[in-house]
Amino acid sequence: MNLSFYLNKTTKAAPLAVFRFLFGVMMFISIIRFWYNGWIETVYIQPKWFFTYYGFEFVKPLGSWTYLLFFICGISSIGLAVGYKYRISIITFFLSFTYIELIDKTPYLNHYYFVSLVAFVLMFLPANTTFSIDAYRKPNSYYDSIPKWCVDILKVLIGIVYVYAGIAKLNSDWLLHAQPLKIWLPPKYDLPIIGWLFKYRITPYVFSWLGMFYDLTIPFFLLYKPTRKFAFVAVVCFHMMTYQLFQIGMFPFIMTLAVLIYFSPTFHEKLVCKLRWLLAFNKNVKYLPKIYQFTGIQCQFLKPILIGFLLLQLILPWRYLLYPGELFWTEEGYRFSWRVMLVEKAGYTTFTIVNPEKGTSFEVRNEDFLSAFQIKQMSIQPDFMLQYAHMLRDHYIEEGIENPEVYAESYVTLNGRISQPFIDSSVDLAKEKESFKPKKWILPFNGTIKGL
Q1: 354 by DSSP, 3-state: which?
Q2: Which has the closest alpha carbon to 33: 311, 190, 249, 208?
């Protein structure tokens, strides 16, 4: 298909408006949930030190001001949902949410990353042309039709999440050994209705294969009209089951509502009518049908940004191929690649500080510097270990130790295997530099996991 012809195709604006509304509502609920559970305090204020993302060290914790940041994020999500000053709302939401996410990578989850990506895309889309306060206040800004690609780009983004999650499951641990579900499912035997299933040895294997098949195929079943309704039922069942089994926060609800964008414009127009009636939202206002069109300058600006964005999402998950060793072990190239719930890792790491001037050494109490959650994540991820070692180096320089050496002894278990040494305990981590290069001080994985 000719690209220019495709870019000129239009569709109804209702699917994008519904997506904007539901996304905003879910984000507001997420902020309230985070605040209500006290996680702002425990995750972003109480820790003495934070693990920053490489290249984003300039993002600093805000202390008690973090509450204001969450408040701004919550208010902007409301503006996003109702379509009030939409452009300001979505930009504010993207910046505030992403800043929160970048403060500390300890609580990293795939759905936080997904939210930032969606918010980034929405900044460039006319998601307030209908079913919005903006369109109500200024009827001349109402458009009932928009370029079709504005809806399709969100479908592609959701499809990438699912398909890459499915590709990641094409490995021997998941398909042949049912790991880590073989570890996670048996303790769930007391769940109502489905708990009895987890007493059988075959159940983790069935769930592993069904999960792989679901992720690889669900976007295509949603695209195909004859299977769309059945696919949506599968989405609801799948995500509600994962929510009950693993308590993974808002992600199941976010994805369940997000896939509604695959439904027809007619479906969304009916949904908008019902929402207007329920919310008593400008239901009596009459508009003339119009088609929203980007200006030539806007097109020249948007085309490279959004094409580059999609290409990055397609390429980034494959960056692990640039690193030697087993991905699940080293985790180099693991984040931002939609590898969802594929590993069960646990570890124990101790750090020793050596004073080369006096020839003395002592072991660090990790609890003096990190929260329990941070210790858990640090003990299984090498980039965390390196950052922590550098922090210890700088701390003890301030304490008066000249050129302290930092050594770590770490043991990690992966997907039920026997624990084994994780990093080279003879390497002075204080002298190692963080970069995108392979970390040669990670010891080889004593096992084999075949697959993509």
Answers
A1: strand
A2: 249
**What Å distances lie between residue 30 and 115, 123, 251, 437, CA to CA?**
11, 20, 10, 36
Distance CA 157, CA 110 (A): 13
Q: Which amino acid is at 426?
A: S
Contacts of 283 (CB under 8 A, 6+ apart): 273, 276, 277
State yes or no: cis peptide before 180, omega within 30 of 0.
yes
The pLDDT assigned to 1 comes to: 56
SS3 readout for the chain:
CCHHHHHCCEEECHHHHHHHHHHHHHHHHHHHHHHHCCHHHHHHCCCCCCCCCCCCCCCCCCHHHHHHHHHHHHHHHHHHHHCCCHHHHHHHHHHHHHHHHHHCCCCCCHHHHHHHHHHHHHCCCCCCCCCCHHHHHCHHHCCCEEECHHHHHHHHHHHHHHHHHHHHCCEHHHHCCCCCHHHHCHHHCCCCCCHHHHHCCCHHHHHHHHHHHHHHHHHHHHHCHHHHHHHHHHHHHHHHHHHHHHCCCCHHHHHHHHHHHHCCHHHHHHHHHHHHHHHCCCCCCCCCCCECCCCHHHHHHHHHHHHHHHHHHHHHHHHHHHCCCCHHHHCCCCCCCCCCCCCCEEEEEEEEEEECCCCEEEECCHHHCCCHHHHHHHCCCHHHHHHHHHHHHHHHHHCCCCCCEEEEEEEEEECCCCCEECECCCCCHHHCCCCCCCCCCECCCCCCCCEC
* Rounded CA separation 262/120 (Å): 20
Q: Are 253 and 26 in contact (CB under 8 A)?
A: yes
Q: pLDDT at position 264, please?
A: 95
In the block, residue with structure tokens 């948007």: 302
Q: Residue 191 has what pLDDT?
A: 85
Q: Which residues of the chain have pLDDT under 50?
A: none
Measuring CA to CA, which residue among 165, 203, 213, 163 is closest to residue 183? 203
Q: What interhelical angle do 149-168 and 110-122 show, nearest 10?
A: 160
pLDDT at 284: 57
Question: What's the alpha-carbon Rg for the chain, to the nearest Å?
Answer: 24
Question: Quick one: pLDDT at residue 274?
Answer: 83
In sequence order, the β-bridge partners of residue 423 are: 442
Looking only at the bridges linking them, the beta strands covering 360-363 and 405-414 are unpaired
Residue count (the chain): 452
Alpha helices in 349-420 (DSSP H): 372-378, 382-398
